[in-house]
Amino acid sequence: MESGVQSGEAGLSWATPGRVRSRGSSEVNAQGGAWAGEGQRSNCVATGFGYIGRSHATGPWGTRLFRRPCYRSASSPNRERNMAILGVIPARFASTRLPGKPLLSDTGKPLIQHVVDAAKRSTLLTRIIVATDDQRIFDAVTSFGGEAMMTREDHPSGTDRVAEVAAAVPEAEIVVNLQGDEPEVTGETLDLVATLLLNDHDAPMATIATPIRDAAIYTDPACVKVVCSNRGRALYFSRSPIPHVRDGGFRVDAATPQAFLHLGLYAYRRDFLLKLATLPPSPLEGLEKLEQLRVLEAGYPIAVGFVEERAVGIDTPEDYARFLERWNLAKSNG
Fold first, then answer.
1. Three-state SS for 208?
2. What SS3 class is residue 85?
3. Model pTM score
4. By C-alpha distance, which of 37, 182, 27, 209 is closest to 123?
C-alpha cells in the first residue's frame, strides 16, 4: 500500500505557493503544468501531507511549511491535466433548523448559487453538479446556468446521493463531495482535497482538517477530531478529545497544534465511492456515528490535508445572518 513512499532526500516534496516541487524533479503547479503562481493568497498544496495557510516551519527556498515534510513524489503533470474530477454538491430542501436554505436569496441570489460559484474557483474541478431530490432546487440551479441532477428521495446520507450522481458520470475518475451549505469554501481547499488523491495513488479517499485553537471545540462531541500518521493518513476519527494530552493538558497556544478538527469535505476515487455504499456498517461507526470509520475499519487508507481556517457552514438562521453580514462587508469593500 505504501509503494509510492520514498525515504530520504530523493523523494522529498516541498510545497510553495501555488505549486508542488519535488527535489530531483521539475516544478509543477497544482494543475500539473509548468510553474504559474496564482497570486491570490499564500498557500501550499503539498503531496500527501497537504497544507494551506500559515505554517510553523521553514523549508528550502524560504518556503513556509506545516509540521512535517511529505515523502511522496509529486504526481505526473500529464496525469493531472487529463484527470476528470467531478464536483458534486448535495442539496436538500428539508432542514430541521433552516428549511429551504439552498434557496435563501437575501443576497440577490440563492445560497446554492453561492456554493456553485465557490466551486468554480477550483482550478481542478472539470464539472460541477448539484444533486437534489427537490424540483425547486433543480429549477433554481438550472435558471442561473448551473447543472443539476434529480436523485432519489430515500438516500440515507449525502454520500449516497453523491454516489448516485457519480454512477451516472462514468468518465469521472475523482469525485469531490462539497457541502451544500458552505458558500465560502475556497478554491484552494477544493484543489487540495483533490490533489491528495492525485499524489497518493494508494488512497481511495481524502479529506481535510484544521488545527484546533479553541478548547471548547476540542471537548465538544459535535466536533469530530482526527489524528494522523506522519505520512498524512488518518489513524482515527472521534467525537472524543483526541489525542488525549496526559501531561499539562490541552494547549490552544502550542507552537505545533496538538489536535485537529475534521472538516466535512471529501474526495473519492469514483470506483471506491460506488463500492462504499456496499460496505457493511462497522462497529466503531455504530459507536461514534461517523461514516468514515467504516472505511478505516475495512482497511482502506484516508489521506488528510490541512488548512488553517475552515469554511463556515450555514445550519441556522443566525448562521445565515452572519453570512449576510460578511457578504455585505465584502461587497462594500469591492
1. strand
2. strand
3. 0.77
4. 37
